[in-house]
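Final report, Chapter 2: Outcomes

The project's central promise was a pipeline that accepts a single protein chain and returns its three-dimensional structure in a standardized token representation, suitable for archiving and comparison. That pipeline is now operational. To close this chapter, we reproduce one record exactly as it appears in the project archive, with the input sequence first and the structure output second.
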Amino acid sequence: MEDRAELMWRIGRFGVVGLVVMGVFMGLNALLGRWMGAQAAFLISYLPAVGLHFCLNKWWTFGCRRTDAGRQVAEYLGMVGVTFVVQWAVFTLVHGYFEVRPWLAAGVANAAQMGLSFFLMQIRIFGRHRAA
């Protein structure tokens, strides 16, 4: 079992990664959107942002040096799909049922997605208990 201090540092690193990836994603959207429109820029920017998120979390947040990257990528992409569905459901519930403003509902939904993502990466995808 890891100590509490290491867990807190890991959560902090996870937050920094989230901010860096958000900055890259937004920057790519701004840059590409000038030439190809908002929807295309969003879609094209998503892949490098997801790749950066995976790499930074694997190597920096979780310090994972295992070599089973193919399995990790597959599980990570599955997690991205699951957490997107959860995020969308939370947004829909918070905005629709509780009548919270859309920007605030998006923030609540994003927080729920981040918590689930951290848990899945910590336990399943980059967990140290898994064999390489």
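Archive annotation: The mean pLDDT is 92.
This record, like all others produced under the grant, will remain available to the consortium after the project formally closes.
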